[in-house]
Amino acid sequence: MTAADRRTEPVLTLDDLTVVYETEQPVTAVKHANLTLHRGEILGLAGESGCGKTTLAYAINRLHRPPARIASGRITFHGDDGDIDILALEDRELRAFRWERLSMVFQGAMNALNPVTTVRAQLKDTLLAHRPRMSRKEIRERSEDVLKRVGVDPRRLGSYPHELSGGMRQRVMIAMAMLLEPQIMIMDEPTTALDVVVQRDILREIVRLRDELDFAVVFITHDLPLLLEISDRIAVMLEGEIVELETADRLYRDAQHPYTRKLLGSFPSLSGERGAFIRTGIDETTDILAEERA
Ligand SMILES: Nc1ncnc2c1ncn2[C@@H]1O[C@H](COP(=O)(O)OP(=O)(O)OP(=O)(O)O)[C@@H](O)[C@H]1O
Fold first, then answer.
1. Is residue 261 one of the residues assigned to a domain?
2. Predicted local confidence at residue 45, as pLDDT
3. Would you say residue 161 lies in a domain?
4. Which amino acid residue places its CA nearest to atom 3 of ligand 1?
5. What is the ipTM of this complex?
6. Which residue would you say has higher pLDDT here, 141 or 113?
7. What is the pLDDT of residue 192?
8. Mean pLDDT score, 90-108
9. Which of 130, 148, 248, 278 has its CA 20 to 30 A from that of 263?
């Protein structure tokens, strides 16, 4: 089967997912969401603050906490070895599932590194938790390999998080997320806290790694120009509902939902050629992102 064929196969399906915050005035943050993520695709999830993007991401990995409750729906992971009903997993199975099949990188993830242990120890702990029989040599090789892949010098294995820049810490978190070669990575505003140049480098790296390793990415941000550049398809959320799901090209050229059109209209510089910068790395090309933020 070719990579293109695999790209049309589902790796994750959400059916009728509803998430409610059971507060005094209950808030239905995700409303009957249906979504299919294909193998190896970058799916952008766009929408303004408070529309439910993070709630959806947490629910997929069962990281939601009370008062959040999944009120309806199914979340199915389609592994090469069969389907997994994520909502039915026992705690132990869920721990094995996370990182191994599906991993997450959050906006504040770089601050999620343990401040008192080295990068080496943190990578090793995660590896051993899932692969207890791994030898020291394999652990060292895998740790060096993932750091290299995200553009961090393996000599940094001995560093503590405070010795690394914000961009480097975020790269280490991405290395951690790909450590066990999951088929899905969910990235929730992974670069928002970083400056534009660092952000752009990391995004380019994520696209390149996806091309190389063929994992699927759900990339969450309210930054629609950025999503247009890196995504294969984009889902637009409005008040808990997915109101449009289209290829990035079609969404850009022919958005159907009035809210998508409004969202596109709110980024006046969305007139350059989509995607040229990150996908080809040609620096002379119109840099939509930088213009947007200028
Ligand atoms: N712990 C909570 N208790 C009650 N309501 C919550 C809680 N967390 C989120 N919500 C509500 O759920 C809705 C969706 O929030 P969510 O954080 O998922 O949106 P978002 O699109 O990720 O926003 P942002 O881009 O600002 O992160 C919002 O109305 C929010 O107020």
1. yes
2. 97
3. no
4. 21
5. 0.95
6. 141
7. 80
8. 91
9. 278
Name the residue with the closest Cα to ligand 1, atom 30: 50
Query: Could you tell me the distance, in angstroms and rounded to a whole number, from the CA of residue 130 to the centre of ligand 1?
Result: 32
Determine whether the shortest distance from the Cβ of 108 to ligand 1 is under 6 A: no
Q: How far is the CA of 49 from the centre of ligand 1 (A)?
A: 8
Mutate to test the pocket of ligand 1, among 25, 30, 49, 222 (most ligand atoms within 8 A of CB): 49
CATH code of the domain containing 230: 3.40.50.300
From the CB of 29, is ligand 1 less than 6 Å away?
yes
Q: Write down the pLDDT at residue 270.
A: 67
Q: Does 179 score more than 90 pLDDT?
A: yes
Higher pLDDT, 284 or 228: 228
CA of 237 to the centre of ligand 1 (A): 13
SS (H, E, C) the chain: CCHHHHCCCEEEEEEEEEEEECCCCCEEEEEEEEEEEECCCEEEEECCCCCCHHHHHHHHCCCCCCCEEEEEEEEEEEECCEEEEHHHCCHHHHHHHECCCEEEEEHHHHHHCCCCCCHHHHHHHHHHHHCCCCCHHHHHHHHHHHHHHCCCCHHHHHCCHHHCCHHHHHHHHHHHHHCCCCCEEEEECCCCCCCHHHHHHHHHHHHHHHHHHCCEEEEECCCHHHHHHHCCEEEEEECCEEEEEEEHHHHHHHCCCHHHHHHHHCCCCCCCCCCHHHHHCCCCCCCHHHHHHC
Give 154-164 pLDDT, tens digit per residue: 999 999 999 99
**Domain boundaries, position 19:** 3-107+183-272
In a domain, 169, yes or no: no
Ligand 1 within 6 A of CB of 67: yes
Q: Distance from the CA of 45 to the center of ligand 1, in angstroms?
A: 15
Proportion of the chain above pLDDT 90, given as a percent: 72
Average pLDDT, the chain: 89
- Evaluate whether residue 124 is within a structural domain: no
Q: What is the mean pLDDT of residues 110-128?
A: 91
